[in-house]
Structures are given as structure tokens and as C-alpha cells.
What we know:
Pyruvate Kinase, Chain: A, domain 1; 3 strands; about 20% strand; 4 helices; alpha/beta
Amino acid sequence: MLKSKEAKTIYEIIASCTVKASLDLNASLIISFTAKGYIPFQLAKYRPRPLVIAITKSQETATYCELGYSLKSILIEEGADVDHNEVIKR
């Protein structure tokens, strides 16, 4: 059983596995849809080589995400369709 110091949240587990998979796949981007910016910051915690793109509908979250390691944000309008090709072009 994990001690409380070693216990990870589900978000940390998802983030660490995502970063590991991105390295295994030699990915150039990690894209994260987010409302509050929590997952992109968990991803940044593991210092990924690929750029992390945080897609959000909140200006506050977009600004917050720009502060993290290897994080860039894209602000989309409420109800907008997101085309992955457009995200990659940005």
C-alpha cells in the first residue's frame, strides 16, 4: 500500500502515463481539452518533450496555462467545433 506521501491523484497518474506514451510514440504534441487548466499543469509537472496545447473556452484558463512549462493555450468560442488540423496549424 502507498504511503500518503507517495499517493498520486488520478490526474497525476493520467498525466504521467500520457507523458510516457508521448515519449514512447515520439509525439510532437500533447493536446488537452480543459476547463480549469488542471490537467495541462499536471502534464507540465513531468516536463514533457512535446509541446502541450491546452484548448479551453475560458480566457482566464488560457492565460493561466501560458505560465506552465512547455504549455501553450488556444482559446475557442463556446459551442465551436474543433478541427484537429486547425489546432496543429496554429
